[in-house]
Amino acid sequence: MKRFLTRTLPCLTGLSTVLVVLGMMMWRYLDEPTVLPLLTSPHEDLAGEIALVNAAFARAQTTPPLSSVPAADALTLARRLSLSLTGAPPSLEEIRRLEALPAGADPVNAWLDHLFADRRYADYLAERFARAFVGVETGPFLVYRRRRLVTWLGDQIAINRPYDELVRQLISAEGLWTSHPEANFITVSVVAGGGGPDETKLAARTARAFLGVSLDCMQCHDDKFSDRWKQKDFHQLAAFFAQADTTITGVREKRTKEYEARYLGEKSETKIAPQVPFLPELFAAGGSRREQLARWITHPENTAFARVTVNRTWAILFGRPLSEPVDDIPLEGPYSTGLEELAHGFIASGYDMERLIRVIAGSDPFRRESRSVDPDKPVTAEQESTWAAFPVTPLRPEQVAGSVIQASTLQALDGSTHIMQKLRRYGETRDFVKRYGDRGEDEFAEESGTIPQRLLLMNGKLVNERTKPNPVMNSSTRLAHYAPSDAKTLDAAFLALLSRYPTDPEREHFTRLLEGKEKKARERAMADLYWSLINSTEFSWNR
Amino acid sequence: MTPFSPFSRHGACGQSDHFTRRALLKSSAVAGLGWLTPLAQQLARGSEKSGKRPQSVIILWMEGGASQLETFDPHPGRAIAYGAKAIETAVRGMKFGEGLPLTAERAQDFSILRAVTSKEGDHTRAIYNVKTGYRPFPGLIHPAIGSILCHEMPGLDEKMPPIDIPSHISILPGQNPARGGYLGAQYDAFQAYDPVKPLPDLRSRTDDEGQSLRLDGLDVLEQSFAAGRLADLEKSRTLHRTSIERARRMMSSDQLAAFDVSDAPKAEREAFGDTAFGRSCLAAVRLVEVGVRCVEVTLNGWDTHINNYEGQAKQLGILDPALAALIGLLKDRDLYENTIVMVATEFGRTPKLNLAEGRDHWPHGFSVLLGGGGFRGGLAIGETDPTGESQEPTGKVRVEDIHATIFHQLGIDYDYEQMTPIGRPIAISDGRVIRELSS
Fold first, then answer.
1. pLDDT score recorded for residue A118
2. Is residue A401 in a domain?
3. What is the pTM of this model?
4. Do residue B139 and residue A325 have CB atoms under 8 angstroms apart?
5. Would the CB atoms of A459 and B13 count as touching at under 8 Å?
6. Together in a domain, A466 and A507
7. Overall average pLDDT of the B140-169 stretch
8. What is the average per-residue pLDDT within B78-104?
9. Which of A138, A139, A450 sits opposite B243 (nearest CB)?
């Protein structure tokens, strides 16, 4: 007996200490905001540009004034930004810091200051952009390291490197795929069996990712939809990549290499010289073929580059691009409302990505609610399509996983999180995404939920592990024990899972669920509440 | 084509009346639920040819790249065999690698395509290519065989009860399980694991009372969310509650028992081999029996860049009993004529060994097995170069030809072009039917 006590008592004491500490840590997020507010800096210089964008949308909205769709509150805006820029909603801890902002402070800019300083932002945006740059393929063996490329992109985004510089470096990359991660943009196209990089894949990718032009079909024939593009446009673009070669020292330019292709209807291949598909007056010789192309693409007067970047960034923030498809924008217009204003602003800013995000997030479309205040006059499809109401779009699989995982703890799982927690989150997200289904590059396809997705959230491992009674790991149980009242418990759960306070009917319903419940019964009731919240439409859709 | 198809049959490159991506996906999303809607099934039944039993497909997927030389296309005595032996089969003159003795006894039941070629030598791209019949194309995901099957033939035999469980299932999914692509995520294969355990995610984590409390809570939340938001949000966009209701119906379906192989006779289980793959093959037969359209079972581990012979032999030890037993059981249950069986892989392996005695990737002539479903058996179509030099095998079959052949056999109009979300019409398959396989 004595032996038993000497062995178990320290463990029990240790466990109770952990629980007390966890409870104390949590306490400050449960009650009045007692945390340090977010630091925020003024961004008055954005006002003019945002006004131009807003004016464009105002001109385009032909319907009567949209008084029924109010401005979204700070919590909703923070939720949208966190989901789209970090892949997870705000934690309860972060929400309390947002709530502690001084009156009059702009929550969007404060929140963006907070997110831009967090490495999660750079890593997540890097992954989203990488899908456009190199897709999601594992790629050729040995010569392609996707992870390195994404990390490198994250490093560039973290220092807010001008986007045109970043793209020039990708297109003209040289060196080993390990020591020069940007070279993976080229080596992803390497053909198995010693063929070197595939100039046709690089041309098609470059046209879509950096020019917003889909030339893929023109590899084989002239444009059949219109006379706009010819087969030669594609192959002359491909010729810019023809001298890229993979050697023992990595990607190099082999200046003697020529490009040959066979045009439709011709019997033999012909030598094809590089030529840009439009705006030849912006082209300047000098340097390697890829350097020349990179300079032309990122020339400030080549607005196509800015347009496609703006369109993708908009799509990441809204879940829906301004111009669809995201990477195929009519070169000579007509352009979607707001696109030109944003593109020219982006160019004028020196391709400042953070500033672009601030402008979009500051615009009226982003700041609107996704619902009308009058239930008898719900939002219409037209209001959504003209951005007079924020569109309700499905969250991406990693955002859903990120929401479950983030909500199960009350502190932000950010750069300072312990490595073991990060590893657990990585493994759980990977498994979840595989079962939920990821459309890879086709990021903005708006699909309804599927039955396997529902089953995964109703009965799957991740939701069960992250919500079942567990006083150390799960916020549901911790709230059951440490929240000072039913009302505070509900507030905390709704904030952690849906980033909002419960409505009156919700409060009434769920209070009945918790009322008078203690210990195990309360833990179970909290697990039930979490299940309902996680399985709601609102949890899996951006609003 | 089913009555609820979102696609026009008259799209062509150059026409401007194509759908927008969102409109198309929205309509395909609604249509996509056809695989579970009784009404849709009834409608579809009417459109199926009377008297013809619907067919299913079982795909045994050898992930990593099975070597043609150690499986269905040995060249015994040649330098490229590196001493590997071949065995006689039930078909005179046809030889298999020595690791397939049980399958060899059934060689009259299927045919081997020995000269399959593709242009993809990277795993991800080649898997995509063989599973969809198309090479990867930017901005567009092509549907896999099972997805097309479920889309084109959602209805079931009138004699069979409606199916509540998924019609497209991938057991032991590898890195790239079959997907619905532009048809919609509804056509993705439902992923399942070793049938030693029940189908994943189908058991509620709480009791009936708890479930009821949870659903009550959900009702309250859904009402708040819908208030003031887009009219018809559920019906026209999220299908959230609909999916939950159908998920619940699936959870309580008796058909789930098909996946549980523990109640199969011991001898039957043993015939498939005591492996996850063997159990999955047994489950595949049982699932087809209850009306599942397509089951994909993956056997991973064929990527033998090192010690090819040992690596392939180990895999063959798993494949051989399972494949032979699968064909045997389908025949015993009178299902073989209605079920196409394909054994496929993303590419073959180089005729010459590398320095580590491994074989690398070789898309220039590899083997695919096709049987059942009324296909002729006992044929070996195409020949690879016995010296291993040529990249142009005789009687070459392209990957897309296999797709066209399968769809043709199923009665699907494979060259029908449907409009895709990128505004480009694409044929279900642009391959050519391999006529020798038709009876």
1. 93
2. yes
3. 0.82
4. yes
5. no
6. yes
7. 81
8. 97
9. A450
Residues of B in contact with A449 (CB under 8 A): 238-240, 243
A112 and A126 housed in the same domain: no
Are A239 and A343 members of one domain?
no
CB contact under 8 A, B225 and A537: yes
Segment A189-240, tens digit of pLDDT: 987 666 789 999 999 999 999 999 988 888 888 887 778 899 999 999 999 9
pLDDT digits (tens, 9 = 90+) for A57-102: 998 876 555 567 999 999 999 999 999 999 999 999 999 999 999 8
Chain B within 8 Å of A454 (Cβ-Cβ)?
A: yes
Q: Whose structure tokens read 């945002």?
A: A50
Per-residue burial over A278-295, b if 16 or more Cβ lie within 10 Å, else e, is beeeeeeeeebbbbbbbb
Residue A238 pLDDT: 96
The string of DSSP letters for B29-58 reads HHHHGGGT-HHHHHHHHHHSPTTPPP-EEE
Of A139, A459, A538, the CB nearest to B202: A459
Query: Does B21 contact A460 at a Cβ distance shorter than 8 Å?
Result: no
CA distance to A138, B192, B239, B260, per residue, from B245 (Å): 37, 21, 10, 23
Tell me which residues of chain A have a pLDDT lower than 70. Answer: 1-37, 39-40, 62-67, 192-194
Average pLDDT score over residue span B272-279:
97
The predicted-structure confidence for B35-77, as pLDDT tens digits, reads as follows: 333 333 333 333 343 334 448 999 999 999 999 999 999 999 9
- The verdict on residue A52 lying in a domain is no
Residue of B nearest to A430 (CA): B175
Pairwise CA distance, residues A351 & B372, whole Å: 60
Look at A449 and B225 and tell me if their CB atoms are within 8 Å: no
d(CA B284, CA B272): 12
Chain B contact set for A448 (CB, 8 A):
29-30, 32, 186, 237-240, 243
A128 and A105: one domain?
Answer: no
Of A297, A329, A355, the one marking the end of a domain is: A297
- Domain for residue A373, yes or no? no
Give CA B287 to chain center in angstroms: 13
Whether residues A194 and A209 share a domain: the answer is yes
- Whether chain B has a CB inside 8 Å of the CB on A532: the answer is yes
Query: Are A213 and A292 in a shared domain?
Result: yes
Considering the domain architecture, whether residues A273 and A331 belong to the same structural domain is answered as no
Based on the fold, state whether residues A239 and A315 are members of the same structural domain: no
CA atoms of A289 and A237, how far apart (whole Å): 10
Domain that holds residue A175: 119-297
Please give the full DSSP string across B314-341, using - where no structure is assigned: HHHHHHHHHHHHHHHHHHHTT-GGGEEE
Which chain A residues are Cβ-neighbours of B179 within 8 angstroms? 437
> Does any domain span residue A10?
no
Total structural domains in chain A?
3
Could you say which of A279, A297, A315 is where a domain stops?
Answer: A297
